[in-house]
Every structure is written in C-alpha cells, then in structure tokens.
Amino acid sequence: ACGGDDDEPAADDTDDAADDSGDGDDADSGDDADSGDDAAEPAGDGPDCAVDEVDGDLFLYNWAEYIDPELLTAFEEQYGVSVTQDTYDSNEAMQPIISAGNSGYDVIVPSDYMVSIMISNGDVMALNKAAIPNYSNLADDFESGLPYDPEGAYAAPYQWGTTGLGVDKAVTGEDFPRSWALVFDQATADEYGTAGSISLLNDPRETLGAALKYLGYSLNSTSEEELNEAKELVANAPIQAFDSDGYDENLATGQTVVAHGYSGNFFVQFDEADDPAQYEYFVPDEGGTRWVDNMAVVHDAPHPCTAHTFINFILDAENGAALTNWNYYASPNEAAEASILPEILEDPAIYPDDLEKLEFISDTGDYEINFSDAFIEAKG
Amino acid sequence: MFWVSNLPSMVPAVSMRALTKRFDDVVAVDALDLDIADGEFFALLGPSGCGKTTTLRMIAGLEIPSAGSLKIHGDEVGTLPPNKRPVNTVFQNYALFPHMSIADNVGFGLRMQKTPKADVARRVGEAIELVRLTGMEHRRPNQLSGGQQQRVALARALVNRPKVLLLDEPLAALDLKLRQGMQFELKQLQREVGITFVFVTHDQEEALSMADRIGVMGDGELLQVGTPEEIYDQPVNRFVADFIGRSNFLPGTVEDSSTVCLTNGTRVVVDHAGTTGEAIALSLRPERVQLVDRGAVPDGHASLDGTIGAVTFLGSGVVYHVTLDWMTIEVRAENRPSVARREVGDDVSLWWRDDAVAVVPA
Amino acid sequence: MFWVSNLPSMVPAVSMRALTKRFDDVVAVDALDLDIADGEFFALLGPSGCGKTTTLRMIAGLEIPSAGSLKIHGDEVGTLPPNKRPVNTVFQNYALFPHMSIADNVGFGLRMQKTPKADVARRVGEAIELVRLTGMEHRRPNQLSGGQQQRVALARALVNRPKVLLLDEPLAALDLKLRQGMQFELKQLQREVGITFVFVTHDQEEALSMADRIGVMGDGELLQVGTPEEIYDQPVNRFVADFIGRSNFLPGTVEDSSTVCLTNGTRVVVDHAGTTGEAIALSLRPERVQLVDRGAVPDGHASLDGTIGAVTFLGSGVVYHVTLDWMTIEVRAENRPSVARREVGDDVSLWWRDDAVAVVPA
Amino acid sequence: MSSSSLDPLDIVDPDHEHHHVGEEVERRLRKADRRRGLLLALPAYLYMVLFFAVPLVIVLVYSFATRTSSGSVALSGWNLDSYRKLGEPIVRNVVFRSAWLAAITTFVCLVIGYPYAYYAATRRPLVRNLLLVAVMIPFWTNFLVRNYSWRLLLSTGGPISSATEAVGLGETDLLFTRTAVVLGLTYSFLPFMILPLYASIERIDWRLVEASRDLYSNGVQSFLKIVLPLSLPGVIAGSILVFVPSLGAYVTPEILGGGRETMLGSYIVTQFLTARNWPVGASVSFVLMAVMLSATIVYFRSGGKNL
Amino acid sequence: MSGSSSAQARGIARFGLSLNVVVVLIFLYAPIVLLTIYSFSGARNPGQWGGFTLDWYRALGDDTRVQDAIWVSIKVALVSTVVSVVLGTMAALALERFTFRGKKVFDALLYLPIIIPDVTMAVMMLLFFTQAFDLLDAWFGLRIAKGFATIVVSHIAFNIAFVSVVVRARIAGMDATLEQAAADLYATRWRAFVHVTLPQIMPGVMGGALLALTLSLDDVVVTQFVAGPGSTTLPVYVFSLIRKGVTPLINAVSVVMLSASLVLVIGSLFAQRANQGRRRREPAA
Ligand SMILES: Nc1ncnc2c1ncn2[C@@H]1O[C@H](COP(=O)(O)OP(=O)(O)OP(=O)(O)O)[C@@H](O)[C@H]1O
Ligand SMILES: Nc1ncnc2c1ncn2[C@@H]1O[C@H](COP(=O)(O)OP(=O)(O)OP(=O)(O)O)[C@@H](O)[C@H]1O
Ligand SMILES: NCCCCNCCCN
Ligand SMILES: [Mg+2]
Ligand SMILES: [Mg+2]
C-alpha cells in the first residue's frame, strides 16, 4: 500500500537509469558489450528456463550471515546441485566485481539503489518471470512499483528493513524525542546525554540522507543548497564516529549512546544484551531510509536457470519464513507471514506501521559525486 | 709548533699497578705493573691475543679494569669514561668517521670539548698541515689512500694535545713499503711534539726501530721491559728471544758459571751460565753466527760442523739453514760482493764470539 | 706423495704474449710477454694497483683478456671459463666457503669434477694431512685461526692437482711471525709437489726469499724478470731498485764507459757506465756501503765524507742515516758485538766496492 | 628452486672454439653476460610486465577517461579532468591531513622503533633473533581481528581506560580519536620500521663509537654524531616503508578513528567504490605512486638497500 | 658480538632502552593477549565477557566455511610464497650481479608493488583478469574463471617485489669472491649457485619468504577483487563479516593460526640453535 506511492525523484531516476543503459554499454570496456546487450533487452524475456530447471551448480554472492545455511542445504538436496556461497560486506565492493564480468556468480543480493545502478550498467540479467512462479508470493508493493525496478523485471526482493537509530536508554531515559535532533541538534543532544556519543553510518547517502530528512527534504534531493545545508549539519553535529561496521557492538558496550544503523543488526545485538529492554531501535519521526535487498541474476551468470530456480526457491512461502526467522529482517514475502514467528511479525521496529515517512535511496547518477564529496568535507 | 711540549717530570705519564682485566673466564691482562715515562715512545709487543689491545683500551677508558690501579700523570683514572681522560687513541683500522670530511674528523674532539670555533679552525688547519694533508680537508675518508687515512687518524688524535697518545697497530693495514715510510714519519713526529706514545704492534722490527722502550707481553703478562737493545741482546727467556727477531736455541746444561755443555757434547764458554746442572738453552742470533769453511774456525772458540741445507735470499742478506747432526741452525750473512756465497751441500763450520749468546731457561 | 710430479718439459706452464686487459679507459695490464716454466715458483711483485691481481685473474679465467694470447701448457685458454682450466687459485682472503666444513671445502673441487666418492675422501684426507690439519676436518672456517685458514685454502687448491697454482697475496692477512713460518712451509710444499706456483705479493722480502724467479710490475707493465739475485743486484731502473729492497741513488753523469762523475764532483769507477754524458744514478744498497772512521777508506776507492744523522736499531742490524752536504745516505751495519756502534754526530767516511753499485737511468 | 630456470646459463658459456682473444671476443662475452643477466631476470621481468605493468597501464588509461552517470567508465572523450580534480581543496585537504598523520605515525614508529632496533642489534645472536621474531609474530593473526582488539583496548570502559582510572588518571577516551588512528597505524607498520633500522644499526662499526668517546663525546653526543648519521639509510628505508602504507591505509582509520579523518587511502577507496569515480581514483593513485617512486628511487639508487 | 663495552649504553640510557623494549613488547602483544582471552568468551559480541567457554573452538571444528577459507589461505600463501621466492631471488641476483638491457626499468617496476595503494592494485587486477579472459575467450575460445589461480597470480605480483628487496640487501653484503672460488674449483655457474651462493643468501631468502607469507596471509582487498566463487580466503571471509559482527570464532581462528606459526618459528629457532651448539661442541684439537 505504501511502496508504490513513492516520491517523484525516485521514479524519475528509474527513467534516467533506463535511458542511460545505452551509455552504460558503450562505457563498458568493450568485451562486456555482449552481455550488456542481453541485459538491455526489454524486460520480460530472460533466459529460456523452465520452472525448477537447473543447469549446473549454484554460485551465490551474498551478504555475510544473511541466510540460514540449512536453507542452502535444503536447496542442494531438493535440486541435486551444490551451492557455493561467498560473502561480501558492501554493495560497493560487490558491484565492480560483478560489473567487470567473468565473476562466476549466478545470483547476487544488491540493495535497492544498487539494483538500479546495476540495471543501467547491464550488470544484471532480466528475469524470466515464467521460471519464478513464486514471484507472486511477494506482497503487492514488492511485486511491482518499487522505484528502482518498477516492473520487477530484474530483481526479486529478498529482505527489507529500515535505517534508523539505536539508543541506549540507560543514558537517555525512556522519555526522549524519537527524532534526528538527538543526533543533529546540539541542545537536544546535550539534554539527553548523547552529545559526543553518537555514531553515524560511514556512508554518504545514508548519513547525508538522514540530515536531509531532519531538514525536511527528500533524501534523494539533488539541490546544491539542500545538500550544503545537510553537509553543514553533519559537520557540526556532536558526533563521535562514522561507523558502518561496529556501531551495534559499540552501542552495546557503552562506547556510544546513539547509533545510526540498519534495523536487523540492532535486534541481533539487543538480543545478546543482559537487558534487551535497555535499548531501543526506531526510525525518527522526520523519516528515514527504507531499503530492500534483492536477488538478481548476474549478467554473465554461468547457470542462469539454476539461478532462477534458486530465486523461486527463496520466494517459496516456507523458505521465506525460514529466512526471516533466522536473520530477523522483514520479509517481502506475504505468503510467508503465516510461518514467521509472531514476535518478529509484531515488532514495530521490524515491521514498522508507518511506511509513509520512509524513503528509498535512489541512484542520482552524476550527482553521486556531490554526495561523496560533501560527505568527505563534512567529516572534516 | 702548536703545542706546548710537556715539561719533563718525575711523575710517569702512565702508571699501572696490578692492573688486571678478566672477560668471564679469560684473564686478558694479568696484574700488569708498568710505568711509562713522560715523553717516552713505548711499544707494547706480543703475539695475537696476549692482551695488548686490552691494556691500551683500559688506558683509553674503553674497558673498565677488573682490578688494580691505573694512573695518568698521577691521577687515578680507573673508571673515568673515555671522554674525560687526557688521552687519545689512533685505532688500528683508523676508525675515521665515514660521514664526515677530513676537517670535520680532525676537529671532532675539539668541537666535543666546546673549543671556540675560530680556535677549532686554526688548530685543525695546523694539525692537517703537520701530517701534510693540506688541500684534502674537504675529502671524505674513503677518498684517501691507506697512508693518508693513517695520517688523518693521527692528526685527529694529536690535535687534542693529549697527555698520552695510544696507537693500536696503526700501521698494520699498510703495505710494507708504505709502512716503512710511516714508521719513520711517526717517529719524527713524536720527537717533534714530545707527547708520550704508547704503541701496540706485533711487528718486532717496527717496535725495535721506533721505540725508546719495549714491553713484551705473552698471555696477559708482561715478560720483559727494556730498550730495544736490551730486549734483543738479553732476552729473559726463550719466548722473548724468539719473538723479537729470529734465534737459534741450542739446548744444553750448565757446567759451571761460565761453561755450558751442549747436547752434542760441545763445551761453550758464556758470560753468565746460571746454576750448575740446570738445563738451559743458548739463544744465538742468526746474524751473530760466523759461517766458515769446514775447520776454519779461529782458535779458542767452540765450533759446530754442518752442511748447508737450504739457502734463502733476502736481498740485504742471505739465510743459510745449516744442518747439524742434532739440529738445524739458521745463519744470516750479509749480501755483499765481498762475502762468498755458499751452496746447498757445502760443508761448513760455525762459530761465534762468547758475548754473542744469551743463556735462557730451556 | 699423492700427486704425480709434472715431468720436466720444454713447454712453459704459462705463456703470455702481448696479454692486455683494459677496464674502460684504464689499462690494467699492458701487453705482457712472459713465460713461466713448468715447476717454477714465480713471484709477481709490484706496488698496489699495478695489475698483479688482474694478471692472475686472467690466468685463472676470472677475467677475459682484452687482447693477446694466453697459453697454459701450450693450450690457448684465453676465453675458457675458470671451471675448465687446469689451474687453481688461493685467494687473498682465502674465500673459504663459510657454510661448509673444512673437509667439504677441500673436497669441493673434486666433487664438482664428479670424482668418485671414495677417491674424494681419500684425497681430501691426504691433502688435509699435507697441510697438517688432520683432526680439524669437521670444523667450520670461522673456527680456525688465520694461519689454519690459509692452509685450508692451500689444500683446497692443491687437492685438485692443478697444472698451475695461483696465489694472490696468500700471506698478507697473517701477522709477521706467522707469515714467516708460512713462507717457509709454502716453499717446502712447492718443492714437494712440483707444481708451478704463480705467487702475487707486494712484500719484496717475501718474493726474494721464496721465488725461483720474480717479475716486477709497475703500471700494468712488466719491468724486469729475473732471479731474486738478478733483480736485487742488477735492477734495470730506479723503480725496481727502490721497490726491491732499499737503495741509495747517487745522481751523476757518465764520463766514460767505466767512470761516473757524481753531482758533488766525486769520480766513481763502475763496471758498465753507459753512454758518455748521460745523466744516470748509482744505485747503492745500504748494506753494501762501508762505514769507516773519517778518512779510513782503503786506497783506490771513491769515498764520501759525512756525519751520522740518525741511528735506527733493527735487531739483526743497525741503519745509519749519514748526512752528506748534498744528500743523505742510508747505511746498514750488522748488529754484531764485533762491529762498533756509531753515535749520532760521529764523523765518518763511506766507501764501497766497485761491483757494489748498479747504474740506473736517472 | 627450479633448475630449468638457471640451466640455460651454461649453454651460453663460451665454447672451446673461441680461443682467440681480443676486444671483439671480450665484447661478445660481455654481451653473453648481459644476456645471462637478462635471462635470470626474465621470468620475474615478464611476470611483472604481464601481471603488473599491463594492469597498471589499464588503470592509467582509465585515469584519462570519464565517469558515466551510472558510475561506469566511458572509454572515450579522453581528458585530464580527473587530474584537475586533484587541485581542488577537498583533495588538498585530504592529502595534507593524510601526509600529516602519516608523518606523525612515521615519527612515532621511529621514536619507539629505533631504540628497539638498537637494543636488538646490540644483543647476542639468540636474543637478537628472538626480539626480531617477536616483532613479526603478532602479524600472524588476522589483521582485522588485531584492529578489533585495539578497538576493545581503547574503548570507553576498556582495559586501558580502566587502568588509567584505577591509577587515578581518570577515564581515557581514546577510541575514535586521531590518537587512536596514529596508534593503530603505528601498530600496523612498526615492523617495517624496525627491520630496516635493525639491519643498518647492526652493520655499524662500533669502533667508530669508541673513537668518538675517545674524542671527548659523551654517550648522547656519540649517538647523535655517529650512530644516528650512520644508521640514516635504515631510518630512510624504514620511513618510506611506514609513510607510504600509512598514507594508503583505510581500514585502520575507519575502525579506530571512527571514519572521521579521511585519509588518502580512504579517499581512493571512496573514489573507486562509493563514488564509483574510477578516473579520479586512478589519477590520485598515479600521482601518489609517481611521487613515492621518485623518492624511493632517488633513495635506493643513492646506495641504500635496506629492509 | 657487535656491541662493545662502550657502545653498550650505560646507566639511564641502558634503563631507557630496556624499558622501551618492554613497552614495545607490551604494545605489540596487548591486542594479541586480549583477542586470545576473548576467544574463550561465551558472549557472541567480542567486546563482552560471557564466561569461559571452548564453544568457539568447537564451532571452528564444525564450521566448514571457515575451514575452507583457512585452507584456501594457506594454499594461496604457500604457492605464492614459493613462486615469488624463486622469481624474486632470481630477480635480486640479476639486479645485484649483472647488468642487462632494461635493468633500470625493471628496478623501478619492482618498487611499484610496494608503493601502490591496495585498492588500486585490486581494481587493476580485476580489470586485467576480466579483460584478459574475454580476450582469451574471443581469440581462442578459452573460458577461464577467476579463482584460486588469479589470487595466486596477484599475490605473486606483489610478493616478488618484497622478496627481491630483502634478498638484494643480503646479496649486496655477500662476498663475491666465494663464487669465483667455486668457479675456480670447477663448479659450473649452476652448481656454484646451488652450492655456494644459495646457502650464503639463504637468510635473506628465508626473510623474504617470511615477509611474503605474512603479506599473502593478510591480504584482503586485492584478494577480494580477484577471487572467484568458492575461493574465499580467510581475511576476505572475515572482512565480509565486518557488518554483521565478527564473533569470537574469528578470535579462535587467529589463536589457532598464531599457535601453529609460533610452534614453527620457535621450533626452527631452537633447531638452528641446537645446530650451532653441536657445531661449537665439535672436537677442538
Ligand atoms: N670483549 C671481550 N670479551 C671476551 N674476551 C675478550 C674480549 N676482548 C678481548 N678478549 C680476550 O682477551 C684476550 C686478549 O685480547 P686482546 O685483544 O687484548 O689481544 P691483543 O694482544 O690485542 O691481540 P691482537 O694482536 O690479535 O690484536 C684474548 O684472549 C681475547 O680473546
Ligand atoms: N673490475 C675493474 N674495473 C675497473 N678497473 C679495475 C677493475 N679491476 C682492476 N681495475 C684497475 O686495474 C688496475 C690494476 O688492478 P689490480 O687489482 O690488478 O692491481 P694489483 O696489482 O693487484 O693491486 P693490489 O696490490 O692493490 O692488489 C687498477 O688501476 C685497478 O683500479
Ligand atoms: N602497498 C600495497 C601492496 C599490496 C600488498 N598488499 C598486502 C596487504 C597486506 N595487508
Ligand atoms: Mg689487538
Ligand atoms: Mg691485487
């Protein structure tokens, strides 16, 4: 009900991306051209694969700790192929490896904005939806209308979540504003004891995006002034660290009081704590990032049919539930909800009620450089 | 001359009493008693490992004595660090600072003593002139020949006007021809500056030709101290006799105070034979043995008959190895047209003057 | 003896014709013509940098000649690599393999030639015995003294029974006493094994006492080749005369075939004076000058009057520096009780036998 | 060691036929020797050309290309824009900051590494080897784990903080400070300072120190005037080996510095990955390498060969 | 013994030196001790002490992904070390002992891997391999995939440089007359190399090997970019965990690898010492 009504800029971007795909082919160092052309074909006619067809072993390139190994074993047993999974720690490290070609991987799990980049670069292959009947298990707003892949032509949502703040209530008390002010406003930070104990993600789009949100702008804003304002805000905020790697641990060990980060990580961390109730994760009232990780088939996947079969396998209701029950991220798989643990399903931090204030990060093309420069300047 | 010559004094320049140095279980220097007079050129001589360097290093302060007393000009200096002693050293390998110019090398000690800049420059200039290296001030040590480096090392030490100059085999690295030249220069220089030199060498000829007095060491002990002539002509034992120059040792027994009976039965008259019945050896220098035709020995001298076994030509002389029944004797003859050359196999007789031998313990 | 003595032959062991070595613009060895006879002990002598090592290295095959011919036992070997020549070298610093035992060092050459194992063991044993190191087979080179290392290097070369053995200053690193001992041993050994030795040294006394023949080099050229006596007594020029032993050079002009007029006007009779009017020098060895009381010169000899300027005691001899009006002359006297010692300041006269001088170009 | 790689050397040994001697032969033999050298170098040479120089040229080409709006590289419209970008204040700031941090790191490594190397070089062989191995051993653990360990050590309430609190110095909040970055970089590169320093100190002729003592230097003067100048090659080699990777570091500044100090290494990573601006990433790398290579070559060619 | 009595610091200086050694050793080992302690912690978060447990070591025994990664790492390290030691040593010999055409270029080329930023090398190797594979495919129909071989090739490319620097330093200090002596004693060049040169430069070669091994075992960025499916090395695997939290399992892995190398190093040190001791005790007639 919410995903489809996304903000204008995101939709625009998708168009841009589609327009750019031709350039992307030229840009690709000569020999990638063929595969690029494949990908640039209109959506809908992916490889000629039948349902449950396998054309070899599966090579999966995924985020670390993102799938229950038993699920992979199940796939191996069900289809008589072996699965090799390698893991990465960021979209940015994964993309060039795939983009360069000859990576050897079949399925990757890029995040939303990276999907659009990879589509325009020709890094991923159009899906043959016919070979993925379980695609329809997806909730409506995931099945179509996602800003980075409106038709669902290239990517199948895997898990989703939000970016927000984790807070140590032992310091702030229960009664603090659920606002970015905790981070960006000196007075508020002083009041609740968060000043100097804040970590923000070391990521230009996420962190400048948070600032933009606090300022009331879209996090995909391409206005120089708005970006400048956001930059100043970040530069002057009482921040201890920019950290994408250990923010959850640092919060748990008392190194920080407020941490900017991804929903799932916090839950795993809070669960471990002596008193899980000491901590709280929330998306600030001004709004935040919503992200979706997606399965996609690599443009030169050696085993495209196995890849489709694997995507179909994950989109199965039971398997989708198993995924969420293992990694604590929200599932886009509506059919799976029946089997998802109720405490997950009912946790508003995992399944937020109010999706309106959330925005997807979308690729801004050339403007990405402004984000990254601004972020470097903001960090000092 | 740029230094004040030390006034003659009764206080020895260096005075050691029971000076001892032990390294773990090795006794490198064993209770040395020695006075070196002010202005003297003193040579320490001995085989490798006998403790010469260790003695010098104790005087320099580079080694702390294990026991005993060490005075320089009357002041006990046993544990004074090297930089506080009025002593300088010319090291065997020169130890010139490779990263400094010649002038900086020479001026190093003065600068360390905070001598005013102008003085440093003047005295460095004088010292470099003294060792005849003017014009090379700005070179690095590796741009000099061995002999030149040696002179820099000398200037670097002398410029500080030390009370005592220590030289540890300063000429060992030079080739023979150059060494001979430097020996002469060094001796000249010492006379000019009047500084006490303590000189270590293992080259006996070098010690004999340069030193006022020589101390012969063996195994950490001082075996004999004396003028070159005393040491050469009256060695106290076989070791000293053999180490200083070459010598033949004729074993025998003391018959009475002036007669020795050699192993082959020959009776020999000597100045001081020692205790009757004692086993001794006669030390007989090769150049003091007279080589004559068989039987042509003047009356009144003991004589030994033998055959020429080998001839070694040395340039200024010839060494004959004369084979006797019971031993071989080396004889050195001058290489002069007037002296007939002998051939291998010639039958000869040997004799010597009574005062040509020294009696040493067997 | 474990090797076959080379049969005497008319073919020289080493034969060089116009042998030349250039390094860029330096002519290290300049058109050498030299035959070294089989079984000969040949010494190459000369000052530092004159090309001795380069010559040896060409014979060994470690340096390729720039021009000329080089034969070993009649075979041209100019460009043959070292491992294919019947020649071995004893290097100046021994170049023993530090990571191998003495036995392995000595056996290296044999193993490289694929000699059967049993033979290697036997011959290594014999060679080690020859140099008197039995019992030390299993030590490493750094556990030996300098003299012992030297002997290992010798054994390592000799065990291969080379046709020619090259020795580049093999004794330079030893101290004097040890060096004298090794000189004797080496000479003995060469006689025993009968191998041709080519020996490089810059110590003239070493060359004189050991070699059958000596080649004196200067600046890449061979200046004189001859027996030690020839070189010493009839040097072809001032350089050779001065380099081999010490010499006084009295400048003068040839008056006629047997008379030379010295700079101070004294007329001197000589054997072969040279061309009339030519400026020459008389080379007069210190030990050939007779030192007598002023005026006590025998009739018929030229004499020079002077005063003793300095006395240097050398042990076996004494050197007097006699100051004349126009030059200083060194005189060497034996140190014998029978020879009276002179003091500085004594007035003396000098004379010499007519055949004691050599005429050399001025 | 593969024997086939060296065997050919003997094939080019002169044959028995070449017996006439002369400049011509000498030249030919010298040429053969050069060929031998080349042959010996060839495997590594070819390897480095194929697997290093060629890839490097590819990136060099990229540095003159243009970033497309999707962040890939357009291999057309060659330009110098990416090099121009290097003049912008943002890059200058990063360069100055990283040079400053790298210099501090180098200095700290020198200050604690020198005495360590000095101490090691003046011990007996067994102690010496133990001290050197002791420097290497920590690096047999995973580098990320080492950095995390430091994070723990430095964190609020961590061991260091507790220790300083216990001795009454109050809590020390070092994590996510510039100090922590320098500490972490020092930790990462200390061995690269100690090893060449050790090599050059160990080579010093100690008799020179004695000579200086004899010439009235006290211990400190001997050190400053003799030991230090003579170990300069090690100081320089060590400094290059610490300075260069410090400039290029990015994991340590992020883990221990809280990502607040963008260093050159982070900047390059950002350009290649986050901004996907390969031309700029490449141009920064090339300028950095050119500067460092000139410095290194000048130093190594002028006689220092230490590591 | 290199330090003579007056070169050895006295008094305060001596104390300062010893103190510095202690401080440096504490500095070097504090994190190692800490990570070892936490490898026995029951908490999943490596910063919290969760009571003593051996669970992580047990988990390590069960975790085939980590084990696979360790094996890949070890294999990559060994192969790349051996190859780069051979090539690097040859290069060092050529550079120190010969002149040849292109020597200066080679010399400079060998310094580049030391100064190139890791990412730059990673990117360039990635581009190189993929483009080279495309060319091979287009020209010869050869289909090659990245994987173990590409990692090894890349590691060799930087290790050669490090090995050759270390070995060159050793060769520069070696007495060249030893090789001439060998030639004089009938050794061919090859045999002179094997019997004389190699044993002499062995400490340098071993030092180079040690360095190469360390660099290879520690490399993340280059490896990540050139690895192919299933050829993840331990550091790459650990790095990918960075966002999800590195558990004490990785500490346990570190401790195991540390112990193994410690046993190797200390073992070889003592073997060396025993060897020397035996030599010293040999008959001294
Ligand atoms: N630092 C030291 N530690 C242990 N032993 C030493 C030390 N220095 C010298 N020795 C030993 O002390 C003895 C005397 O050595 P010293 O160097 O004084 O001899 P030397 O007479 O100078 O010999 P050379 O002529 O070889 O120089 C030798 O046995 C030597 O091994
Ligand atoms: N490899 C070389 N390159 C250039 N010049 C050389 C080389 N080897 C020797 N020379 C030069 O050739 C000349 C002769 O050198 P050589 O080593 O043969 O002299 P030497 O007589 O052995 O001297 P020494 O007594 O000092 O050993 C010297 O001028 C030397 O500098
Ligand atoms: N300077 C980069 C050389 C590449 C080698 N990378 C090794 C990284 C070890 N952490
Ligand atoms: Mg000594
Ligand atoms: Mg020579």
Automatic annotation (TrEMBL), chains B, C:
Catalytic reaction list: ATP + H2O + polyamine-[polyamine-binding protein]Side 1 = ADP + phosphate + polyamineSide 2 + [polyamine-binding protein]Side 1
SMART domains for the chain: AAA (SM00382)
Gene Ontology CC terms: ATP-binding cassette (ABC) transporter complex
Keyword Cell membrane: yes
EC id: 7.6.2.11
Gene Ontology molecular function: ABC-type putrescine transporter activity; ATP binding; ATP hydrolysis activity
Keywords carried by this UniProt record: ATP-binding, Cell membrane, Membrane, Nucleotide-binding, Translocase, Transport
Residues of the ABC transporter domain: 14-244
Subunit structure: The complex is composed of two ATP-binding proteins (PotA), two transmembrane proteins (PotB and PotC) and a solute-binding protein (PotD).
NCBIfam families: potA
Protein name listed in UniProt: Spermidine/putrescine import ATP-binding protein PotA
Gene source species: Ilumatobacter fluminis
Lineage: Bacteria, Bacillati, Actinomycetota, Acidimicrobiia, Acidimicrobiales
Automatic annotation (TrEMBL), chain D:
Protein known as: ABC-type spermidine/putrescine transport system permease subunit I
InterPro entries, alphabetized: MetI-like (IPR000515), MetI-like_sf (IPR035906)
Record has Disulfide bond as a keyword: no
Family classification: Belongs to the binding-protein-dependent transport system permease family. CysTW subfamily.
UniProt KW keywords: Cell membrane, Membrane, Transmembrane, Transmembrane helix, Transport
Pfam families with a match to the protein in the record: BPD_transp_1 (PF00528)
PROSITE patterns per UniProt: ABC_TM1
GO CC field: plasma membrane
TrEMBL record, chain E:
Source species: Ilumatobacter fluminis
Transmembrane segments: 12-40, 70-96, 108-128, 148-171, 192-215, 249-271
Pfam families on file: BPD_transp_1
Domain ABC transmembrane type-1: 70-268
Highest taxon of source: Bacteria
PROSITE patterns: ABC_TM1
GO biological process: transmembrane transport
SUPFAM superfamilies linked: MetI-like (SSF161098)
Subcellular localization, as worded in the UniProt entry: Cell membrane
Keyword Transport: yes
Name of the molecule in the record: ABC-type spermidine/putrescine transport system permease subunit II
Cellular component per GO, a single term: plasma membrane
Family affiliation: Belongs to the binding-protein-dependent transport system permease family. CysTW subfamily.
